[in-house]
């Protein structure tokens, strides 16, 4: 840990085992259904996790006021909190890093819109332009190669850990079996999460983004998802347009902040 001063009435400790994470209130974060899953994954790839607890004035005792996960390989973290003081504390732990949070920083940052949809409101029709497959064990090397081409500094442990923890990768292969586009989905506690779709530049504007998005809808709904969400960088107009075309709506924002 660090000697950084914690907010008044707050304690922070590092979590070494996901089972040590206390009970989380739904009011902690929009992402509360998936936080424990994210802690499990980040610890499995060799990252770090911290939890802050603050004196609860309405009850005797303390309640969780924030959870922070950090991948030291990529130097990317996520602060699950609605407290600006707790957010500032977590950021101070990891200078020269990139932190995502629902707390809007006062300094320059990127904005991600949170798109949501209830499974009952999914569009009933979608005309696929491409075959979308769900990656299996034998596809993981191709998935890793594709993602490292898109993100050269990504933690290579993440693909295996995500697959083993139940996340699934959806791929479109073209012209000799090369992956042209990829997106993944997570289902935890009846809530689906869908990250951005990545499409190689030469294959964009071919409908791949929308096909992968709808394929994930179908997979999540078939496995009991009540609703699903996706965080889309506001400048990613292609993904935003695909989400709106498939009936998703903006329900909030998160912010990406480069910690000086």
Describe what this molecule looks like in 3D:
By secondary structure, the chain is α+β, with helices and mostly antiparallel strands. The protein folds into 2 domains: about 10-100; about 115-260, Aminopeptidase (3-Layer(aba) Sandwich). The chain is about 25% helix and about 35% strand. It has 6 helices and 13 strands. It has helices at about 30-45, 85-95, 140-150, 160-165, 210-220, 235-245; strands at about 10-15, 50-55, 60-70, 75-80, 95-100, 110-120, 135, 170-175, 180-190, 190-195, 200, 225-235, 250-260. Strands 1, 2, 3, 4, 5, 6, 7, 8, 9, 10, 11, 12 and 13 form a 13-stranded mixed sheet that branches. The protein is globular, with a radius of gyration of 19 Å. The two termini are about 20 Å apart. The model has no long low-confidence stretch (mean pLDDT about 95).
Keywords for this entry:
globular, 260 residues, Aminopeptidase, 33% strand, 6 helices, 13-stranded mixed sheet, alpha+beta, 13 strands
Distance separating the two termini: 19 Å
**CATH first level of the largest domain:** Alpha Beta
Instruction: State the low-pLDDT regions, or none.
Output: none
Tell me, rounded to a whole number, the average pLDDT: 93
Instruction: Please give the CATH architecture of the largest domain.
Output: 3-Layer(aba) Sandwich
The major pleated sheet works out as: 13 strands, mixed
Q: What overall form do the CA principal axes indicate? A: globular
